[in-house]
Amino acid sequence: MAPILLDNITPERSEYIEHEEVHVKNPHLHSMEEDILYHFNLSTKTHNLPEMFGDIKFVCTGGSANRMKAFAEFMQKELGLDGENGVEDICAGTDRYSTYKTGPVLSISHGMGVPSISIMLHELIKLLHHARCRDVVLIRIGTSGGIGLEPGTVVITDTAVDSFFQPHFEQVVLGKVIVRSTELDKSLAQELLQCGREILNLCTVIGKTMCTYDFYEGQGRLDGALCSFSTEEKLEYLRRAKEAGVTNIEMESTVFAAMCRVCGLKAAVVCVTLLDRFKGDQITASHELLQEYQLRPQYLVSHFIKKRLQLL
Ligand SMILES: O=P(O)(O)O[C@H]1O[C@H](CO)[C@@H](O)[C@H]1O
Ligand SMILES: O=c1cc[nH]c(=O)[nH]1
């Protein structure tokens, strides 16, 4: 078994320092003449990153490219910005991620699962660093499976946990396992919860979010191509998750929380639940209802952004 190390590049407690530029935790980066953000099709030599991105204060990210485009269009309207030509994908030169900027809001897709969001976050955090951004808040707006919650509930994550219900993210580096904390910013979570409460008919709760490496077996589903457990074993696992404080399950929150924390970035996860996993595995809601569910975290985060910008 690989040796397990607690993260040795993270200080004891990674504190967010107000008004400081976004920093990266990589001593090699400063000696590089050029930094190519390959999956964004951007580079420090070919693009003026401070001019293009220096005013970003909010980064919102979610798995689907269409959702993040829709969110950018929505924010354009909400912030009263000129939207005659719609929004344009800044990284159109690559189809790995879709990126839109509307005023101080960057909307970017991350694909599905830990490896995909982790690559995006490496390049995003370097982008924010090269652009000399300050006081940036990162929010994942996503979907999830609920544990004992009414479908359509919006969950604000207080801590992301792994499949053992631990607040950890494990990264294999040079054949060793590095364990990083997945605690999220508590006051930001409370601020978002308050925003949820201010929106009529939006059911918002706070709880732990479990992040898995798979949608099927990894989330205890009985309907994948493989399944090695019984219905009773599945329900027992979900009951144990619920007892540990888990309210929903998705596939990116631990690495998102861990990477933002190491780099001193304030981060939050806001996911709507598409089903109650105690009641089933298949997502049976209609397309229209699922579309409406996906808008709920967007409304909440838009409300939060407008409050922060003192537009409300
Ligand atoms: O709806 P988004 O944000 O894409 O995320 C959730 O949906 C995907 C699975 O359907 C996973 O990536 C999970 O985390
Ligand atoms: O059950 C679900 C629903 C959405 N996303 C997940 O990861 N799981």
TrEMBL record:
<dbReference type="InterPro" id="IPR018016">
    <property type="entry name" value="Nucleoside_phosphorylase_CS"/>
</dbReference>
<dbReference type="GO" id="GO:0009166">
    <property type="term" value="P:nucleotide catabolic process"/>
</dbReference>
<protein>
    <recommendedName>
        <fullName>Uridine phosphorylase</fullName>
        <ecNumber>2.4.2.3</ecNumber>
    </recommendedName>
</protein>
<comment type="function">
    <text>Catalyzes the reversible phosphorylytic cleavage of uridine to uracil and ribose-1-phosphate which can then be utilized as carbon and energy sources or in the rescue of pyrimidine bases for nucleotide synthesis. Shows broad substrate specificity and can also accept deoxyuridine and other analogous compounds.</text>
</comment>
<dbReference type="Pfam" id="PF01048">
    <property type="entry name" value="PNP_UDP_1"/>
</dbReference>
<dbReference type="InterPro" id="IPR010059">
    <property type="entry name" value="Uridine_phosphorylase_euk"/>
</dbReference>
<feature type="domain" description="Nucleoside phosphorylase">
    <location>
        <begin position="57"/>
        <end position="305"/>
    </location>
</feature>
<feature type="binding site">
    <location>
        <begin position="140"/>
        <end position="143"/>
    </location>
    <ligand>
        <name>phosphate</name>
    </ligand>
</feature>
<dbReference type="GO" id="GO:0004850">
    <property type="term" value="F:uridine phosphorylase activity"/>
</dbReference>
<feature type="binding site">
    <location>
        <position position="219"/>
    </location>
    <ligand>
        <name>substrate</name>
    </ligand>
</feature>
<comment type="similarity">
    <text>Belongs to the PNP/UDP phosphorylase family.</text>
</comment>
<dbReference type="GO" id="GO:0006218">
    <property type="term" value="P:uridine catabolic process"/>
</dbReference>
<feature type="binding site">
    <location>
        <position position="221"/>
    </location>
    <ligand>
        <name>substrate</name>
    </ligand>
</feature>
<keyword id="KW-0808">Transferase</keyword>
<dbReference type="GO" id="GO:0005829">
    <property type="term" value="C:cytosol"/>
</dbReference>
<dbReference type="GO" id="GO:0044206">
    <property type="term" value="P:UMP salvage"/>
</dbReference>
<comment type="pathway">
    <text>Pyrimidine metabolism; UMP biosynthesis via salvage pathway; uracil from uridine (phosphorylase route): step 1/1.</text>
</comment>
<dbReference type="InterPro" id="IPR000845">
    <property type="entry name" value="Nucleoside_phosphorylase_d"/>
</dbReference>
<keyword id="KW-0328">Glycosyltransferase</keyword>
<feature type="binding site">
    <location>
        <position position="96"/>
    </location>
    <ligand>
        <name>phosphate</name>
    </ligand>
</feature>
<dbReference type="InterPro" id="IPR035994">
    <property type="entry name" value="Nucleoside_phosphorylase_sf"/>
</dbReference>
